[in-house]
Structure formats: C-alpha cells, structure tokens
Specification:
Elements lengths: L1 H5 L1 H26 L19 H6 L1 H12 L2 E6 L2 E6 L2 H8 L1
Antiparallel strand pairs: 1-2
Length: 98
C-alpha cells in the first residue's frame, strides 16, 4: 500500500479500473436476474443506463437488422434506462396498433 501513497496517479487509475469492472459486472448480473422468458428477447449491453444507445444511435437500421437475425421480429433493448421493444414485421404492426 506504500506505493499508493507515493503515486496518486496509480491510486486513481486503480480506483477507476475497479469502478469500471464493478459497473460492467453489475450490468451483466442485473440482466441475468431480470430475465423473463415471457417477454421478448433482450439485447445484451455492458454499460448500465446507456445500454445499446450508442450502437443504435450510430447505425439504427444496421442495429435492427443485426438483432432481427439474432432474435427474430420482436426484441427489446435498453436506451437511456428505458426498455425499447422493436416489432419489425407486419405482425408487429398488428401487435402495436391493436
């Protein structure tokens, strides 16, 4: 612990690393604990609250097609702490509008 007192930069870097690892681990555990098989499949994410927002914001069509191939016509992703459910097919329109 003596090196921590001598080098505040190392101390800050270690603290930041522990914090990032803790946040990512918490996000993964939360996704596993909140799994509900009666809901549409959920797109995995690494950063809590932000979720898949960055990937969706950069290439929304590519994002939707990628997860449509993986999960089918209905899936859910996290964006700014809110769950967004995507319905891609005509059946999805009936689901949403009826």
């Amino acid at each position: 612990m003596a090196f921590m007192a001598q080098s505040p930069v190392v101390c800050a870097a270690v603290t930041a690393l522990v914090l990032v690892v803790s946040i990512v681990s918490w996000a993964q555990i939360e996704q596993k604990l909140n799994y509900n098989p009666s809901e549409p499949p959920f797109v995995q994410y690494y950063v809590p609250f932000i979720g898949s927002m960055i990937e969706f914001g950069i290439h929304p069509i590519k994002f939707i097609r990628k997860y449509q191939k993986k999960y089918g016509n209905f899936f859910t992703f996290l964006m700014f702490g809110r769950r967004m459910t995507v319905c891609v097919d005509i059946e999805g329109n009936d689901f949403v509008f009826n």
